[in-house]
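Hey, quick one: can you model this chain's 3D structure?
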Amino acid sequence: MGSAALACPCLEAIIHGPDTVAGVVTQPDRPKGRSLRPQPCPLKEIAEPRGFAILTPENVNTPDSVTALRNLAPDILVVVAYGQILRPPVLEIPPLRCVNVHASLLPKYRGAAPIQWAVANGDTVTGVTTMYMDAHMDTGDIILQGQTEIGPAETAGELHDRLALIGARLLCLTLDAIRDGNVTATRQDPSAATCAAKLKKSDGRIAWTQPARVIYNHVRGFNPWPCCFCEAPAGSGKWLRVLRSQVEDKSDETPGTVVLTTGNGPVVSTGEGRLRLTEVQPEGRKAMSGADYLRGHGLKAGDRLG
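Sure thing. Here's the predicted structure for all 306 residues.
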């Protein structure tokens, strides 16, 4: 059961392992792009050519969906980035229970956006957890965990791709342990739990009064979505996405003031320090280097970004 790209390596790992895929449960096709044509999610795209039985319920917990799942007769349900909460009638279907692959070191970052918030908060270490599922959000007993360092310039998108592969390897070890009857699951410590709330587009709005290091981590954590953005210059009504940046020396200028327009991108004063914008995307344009942006958009020292 899955939808997002994080789930794809896990399905591939199961396909090439000793187990048989009874079926794939994923989200219905959704409108995408400028044409708003219904498009399959990433997991369905790789499952469909294999000829698997595919279920795409709008709500997996309805009686009809539960019956369809029972008819697949799964021994175990593997859930990775599915996007729906499973209620007890679904959780009780497989005799070997439901296993979730979650992209954090639980109980830290329970919720929908653990990768993004780990980067945005400036963490240096994260990982993947496999756990038995219960009726609550990411609170089940931990089976295995795999840890990895977060690179100092790594974006959430880049970390996502690494964690997807780590998750697939960890899932294989987990399924081996369950198959062999060799699982020792550990309860989570609720006092250590933190929340990774679902991201909103507004989370990407840059507050220049924050320290440069905080904004820098947000730029990394919210790349590729929702992306950090600002108004350039303030009051113009033109939006600028900031895709990559660098923290530079301290500054006493008013936060949001452009202080340099030379080199590999504009340098902007923040609440503490300066931030150089090294890769940006003007509204309606493709992504470009900060240097190219300076050459073509007339930004000058003293301008304010909103």
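One thing worth noting: The mean pLDDT is 96.
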